[in-house]
Amino acid sequence: MTPEQSLQIINEMINSAKSSMNKHHIYFLIWGWLMIASAVSVYLIVYQQNNPMGHLSWMVAGIIGGIASSLYGKNQAKKIKSVTFIDKAYQYVWLSYGITLLCILFGSIGFKSDPGPYITILTALPVLVTGLMLQFKPFVIGAAVFWIMGLISFFVDEPTRLLFFSVAIFFGYIIPGYMLRKQENND
Question: Which of 3, 88, 99, 151 is most buried (CB neighbours < 10 A)?
Answer without folding.
Answer: 151
